[in-house]
Amino acid sequence: LTANFMSMQSSIKVACVGLGYIGRMVCEALISENPFYNQKLELIGVVDIVPESRVWAEKKNLKAFSSIRELVDYIKPDVCIHTTASNMESVVDQLKELLAAKIPVVSSAEELFFPWVTKPKLALELNSECEKAGVAVLGTGVNPGFVMDVLLAAHKHVHKARRVDLVREAFLKQAQVQAARIAVQRDGLTGASQHQ
């Protein structure tokens, strides 16, 4: 966001797509503090296909949606923080949907950090969509697994590790997401009827 844009409005409307571990941490940070100088960040909505995640959001008094389309039909955010998955194949359609609505995106997907090396075709597609929409996608490449790996590798008091066990919630969440997708396809539910 440019300085001109930020100075023209009193708050920046933010939406979060994905309420796994990272998404929930982002929401908590936006609710509890404002790390960006004097700019007010207003969390206007969250998106997740898992009903339990939407219930978590609603308990935080956040407007929760089951799809990006449902969010965009309700209100258009100034920026979206995207935290659904790590690989390009899993996120590209979500990103294209946000870009079609001309919403800039910051994503935690690792493969978006340097996409033209590992996924050049998808990177070109996303770049084309960004140019067409006049907005950007910024890949930060952060994942709790990566953070945990770096933390262990950099810790000065670890002299020798024989074994490290790390249980990633992302794998558990993927099973929930897949089950929700299957149910939607099986039952023919739309985002609106699913949310009710």
Layout of helices and strands, plus pairs?
Layout: H1 3-8, E1 11-17, H2 21-32, E2 40-47, H3 51-59, E3 64-65, H4 68-74, E4 79-82, H5 88-100, E5 105-107, H6 115-118, H7 120-133, E6 137-139, H8 144-154, H9 169-187, H10 191-195
Parallel strand pairs: 1-2, 1-4, 2-3, 4-5, 5-6
Question: How does this model look, in words?
Answer:
With 196 residues, this protein is of the alpha/beta class. The protein has a six-stranded parallel β-sheet with strand order 3-2-1-4-5-6, sandwiched between helices. Helix 5 (88-100) packs parallel to helix 7 (120-133). 51% of the residues lie in helices and 14% in strands. Strand 1 (11-17), helix 2 (21-32) and strand 2 form a beta-alpha-beta unit. It is globular, with a radius of gyration of 18 Å. Residues 189-196 have low confidence and may be disordered.
